[in-house]
Design goal:
The complex is a heterodimer of chains A (about 110) and B (about 200). Chain A is built from 5 helices and no strands. Chain A has about 110 residues and is an all-alpha fold. In chain A, helix 1 packs antiparallel against helix 2 (about 50-65). Chain B is of the alpha+beta class and about 200 residues long. Helices cover about 45% and strands about 25% of the residues of chain B. Chain B has a 4-stranded antiparallel sheet with strand order 1-2-3-4. Chain B has a 4-stranded antiparallel sheet with strand order 5-6-7-8. In chain B, strand 1 (about 5-10) and strand 2 (about 15-20) form a beta hairpin. Residues about 140-150 of chain B have low confidence and may be disordered. The chains are: A mainly alpha (about 110), B alpha+beta (about 200).
Chain lengths: ~110, ~200
């Protein structure tokens, strides 16, 4: 999916480290994650935060992902990407406790 | 006897635990081991309160529902005490049924932000060293099925790769020897020596 010609297999300890970094970042960013989710709940009253987030998300995907891939095209389609984004935000918001590392790992294995 | 109170806050949700320490175990005065009451306060929603026997099923319901929400398209959880269903991707319908007769169930609608606040309040309670851990039925580790899968995969590769390389090397060596001991060449040589 990424714009890269090098296909390196990730090692187990590298995956663990990435999960730990993600959990720590979501602890730090929880207030923002919460506001994005809240903005989507009341899209008619407060659409600014959701629209800004969605715009930046799409910009980053176009910049870093291979946009010829069908899976990436699905991420760019605003009608289809809502569910993926909301579920990803929910996963991050459920993983801010001290057991967040284990929970995120379980979510990723089950996804 | 004065009861201890502990509060856990997460944005729009707060959880209050009221109870006593277990003095028979020489616990500190701040500890809560015998929970007598709990209150879950969600902003702009009616107060939810109950006894310890209600807290565990409610926590379990929220944890199971959050898991279903991520895995399923239409998540739904039903029990004697609480029902949680998704209205859509953003709004969740909670029905709390009273254990007392002739009391109407309490219906709440909460969004994703409040759901994640509630889950985080329960997590804080689970991790608090001041409250005796409330046992839940939710597994926290990798499911056994998956663990078995991973274990099996490693074992499979460890078992399969050495004989695979051994068989490959045998094939390569044997084809090398076949080249030097070709019986057709020997027959031709014999024919050259004895042209009869």
């Amino acid at each position: 999916m990424r714009k890269s010609y090098v296909t390196n297999n990730i090692k187990l300890n590298e995956l663990d480290a990435l999960i730990r970094i993600t959990v720590e970042m979501s602890k730090y960013l929880y207030p923002y994650i919460r506001e994005i989710l809240k903005s989507k709940e009341n899209i008619e009253e407060n659409s600014v935060i959701w629209n800004d987030f969605n715009k930046r998300f799409i910009e980053l995907i176009k910049e870093r992902f291979n946009i010829d891939s069908m899976r990436v095209k699905k991420l760019l389609n605003q009608a289809e990407n809502d569910e993926i984004i909301i579920k990803s935000l929910l996963i991050l918001s459920f993983c801010i406790s001290n057991q967040g590392y284990q929970r995120l790992k379980n979510f990723l294995y089950d996804f | 006897m004065i009861q201890n109170k502990l509060s856990f806050h997460q944005s729009s949700v707060s959880l209050e635990i009221i109870g006593l320490p277990d003095y028979s175990n020489n616990e500190n005065k701040d500890q809560i081991s015998i929970i007598s009451q709990w209150k879950l306060n969600i902003v702009d929603k009616p107060l939810i309160e109950g006894k310890i026997e209600h807290l565990r099923p409610i926590m379990d319901a929220f944890y199971i529902y959050s898991n279903l929400l991520i895995k399923n398209e239409i998540p739904s959880y039903e029990s004697k005490l609480i029902d949680i269903k998704a209205d859509n991707l953003h709004i969740h319908n909670i029905v709390l049924k009273s254990s007392k007769p002739n009391v109407k169930p309490l219906v709440l609608k909460i969004g994703n932000s409040m759901l994640s606040d509630t889950i985080n309040c329960f997590d804080q309670l689970n991790e608090s060293p001041k409250v005796r851990r409330i046992k839940t039925d939710i597994p926290t580790n990798i499911p056994k099925k998956l663990r078995f899968g991973l274990y099996k995969k490693d074992k499979f590769f460890n078992f399969f790769i050495p004989p695979f390389f051994a068989i490959c090397s045998l094939i390569l060596f044997s084809s090398y020897f076949i080249y030097f001991n070709s019986p057709f060449e020997n027959i031709e040589k014999k024919e050259q020596i004895n042209p009869e």
